[in-house]
Amino acid sequence: MARGAKLLTLGVLFAGLVGLPFFLTGYKLRFVTWLLMWVGLASTWNLFSGYTGYINFGPVAFFGVGAYVTAVLMVKAGVSFFPALLAAGVLAGIAALLLGVPTLRIRGAYFAIATLAFSEATRSLTLNLSGLTEGGKGLMLPIYNNAYFFYFVILGLTVAVVATVAFIQRTRFGITLVSIREDEVASQVLGVNTFLNKMAAFGLSGVFLALYGGIYAYWQTFIEPGEVFNVLYSVQMLVMTFLGGSGTLLGPIVGAVVLGAMTEYLWATFTYVYLIFVGVLIVATVLFLPDGVWGYCVQTQSRRRRRAQPAPVLE
Amino acid sequence: MLHLENVVSGYGKIEILHGVTLDVRTGEVVSIIGPNGSGKSTLFKTVMGFLTPAAGAIRFDGREITGLPPEEIIRRQISCVPQGRCTFPHMTVKENLELGGYIHRNRQEVSRALEEVFAQFPILKERRRAVAGSLSGGEQQMVEMARALMLRPKALLLDEPLLGLAPKVRGVILDKVLELNAAGGTVLLIEQNARRALEIAHRAYVLELGRIRFEGPGGELLADKKVRRLYIGE
Amino acid sequence: MDWHPFAVAVIDGILLGGIYAAFSAGFSLVFGTMRVINLAQGELVMLGAFSAYWLYRVQAIDPFYSIPIVLGVLFLVGFGLQKLLINRIIAKEPLVSLLLTFGISLILENLALRLWTGDYRTITTSYTGSRTVVAGVTLSNMRVVGLGLAMLAMVGLFLFLTKTKIGKAIRATAQHPDAARLMGIRIHQIYALTFGVGAALAGLAGVLIALIFTIQPAMGGFYTLMSFCVVVLGGMGYVPGALVGGFVLGIIQTTSATFLGGHWMEFSIFATLLLVLLSRPAGILGKGIVE
Question: What is the DSSP letter of B229?
Fold first, then answer.
């Protein structure tokens, strides 16, 4: 697509998103807000895991940390929303960097399991520190019922995330991340400080996740550890990205919209069946569409382009 | 016995062998020599079924084996000693050898084959309880050869058997190859050590950049000035 | 004799640990042989537990007698899963198997929830609550028998892997798959068999668990995580390590429950897993496979 046409499409899309809430009410508005949040969450997950290839199985940990830091500051220290949210982001960033130091040294499946263990440990910890967090009873935040407020805050954050990914894709940072996924050792041999790059991406994704968590907490007004540290949320981020195509810009967006819509449709009617369906979807994606829906489209496009030129013969 | 007809093979889109035709007749020792990168490993992997040729055919003992996986090719009684250490490192010498006889129908056949192999490689009989991974390079190579022979194969392929071995040990390995041949076995030897490979070969081929460049009786190629200059370095 | 609570906790831990070792051994075997991480392991345990439960409820088959049936059924389930689904992604990295088996675990868990509801079930037989007092310590008979059977299963597995032709073929495939193929071993069959064996062990552990605890269809997740802990502690892919890992984990579980309180037990387990992964990924014995 030509540059001009691309900008025009983006502009129209943006205008549409800005104007949308004024045409929707109640349930539908909440649904679109929720969907936008998941587009952002999936893209955030993709920012680190999709590009570096380090599969983070516990992103919900940062989401939950963001939710609880925001909530505790607002409820117990009387801090107002935006400063509390900011603090949550900063704290999560620091936590991500601290976690990253020991964890980013290990690879592949072990990294995945370590992040899962961290996520579950954090959930358990939050549950047990009931003096601070009210534990299993849950924490009630100050009520703020402005649906438009939350729509625009989430829209803003999601646009920021997508823009960040788009920007990173074009910079050396982005290429370095991909090189880590393709062949980390080769990268290191070429002098790339893979550790710092991984840390940067990991920290950034941690901050974004926490910001979403904080907004979610204020939006839902009531949180408890089992929900904001729910492993299934991690799974959803992962599945949405994989379904759409990890390591691409649009992949997570496509995946989030598709899976999100399906969830809404199936959840209310058939609780367990929805999860069976997700399971089948994961199995099918792994077996038949390892590059995800969007990834598959990208591949077909490049395959068509390649067929136009004959492959060079190796002399 | 083994016939390759215009075999084209490689890894994905990268073509390494550009149409190789060669023969190994029953009872012969045939050597394939050539510099690094000429496609010797690819040739080995293609014959043994780890790679499927993009074009061409491979026939063994009159039957087509093109595209069969290794576990099926073995069942046609063609056995091999691949490059590098291929023993089962955490199992004993005896267990390694017994696995060589995996496709035999019953225990008696395996025991008989084991006895024969122990007779040919007395050192291995001595060290039969040793864990394979603790043996020296030369000893492991012998385990692999003996293991390949457990199959009672009609033909034996060896991929760079002398790699990384001390000169004396190399001599031992080559002696074994000649013993085998003297007993009626057919051998295809793929080897970078051109001189030794040509010395023991009835016939030989020179593989370079994925194509057969020279072929002829081993002695002839050994004496040929061009071959000596290019591949033996004199 | 009045036993110090720590000693009691340790004994309890050992009793549990045996069962953990049993189903984790299968997990380790599968990883060691095919580099597959089976996130559906807990669900296989759950299936074993529920098979025993339904056989008892509907056919009044004593759980101990249902063991052979469960072993057979779970073996077939595992064999089938491997043959139909997992074998397709064998050559790829373990991460792919993680995703695939996770999908399978979602399907199994929620299918079970749909069919049997989330209700908690127990198997109550004539001997359920029986206890024995040994040297002043009260031991639950079920737990002792559970440990005994679990150990028997481990011995059986050991003999299978070291003395039988197929067992050796499995080990050969784990040590050098290409060389194994050159022996004529059909490695895809071996993979299916291995997974089947792992599933059968999980099923056996499930029966034992059903005899000791209450069960419900969502129990799988906990046991999968336990498998991870055991296997990481004992060394990924190192089957004998599962014994060490199982006992250590059992003891950690019971001692943290006794001294820190029930809530902290969960945290202790996750924290242990994380610490071991970060400091000694090859496990306590240092024999695990680290990529």
Answer: I
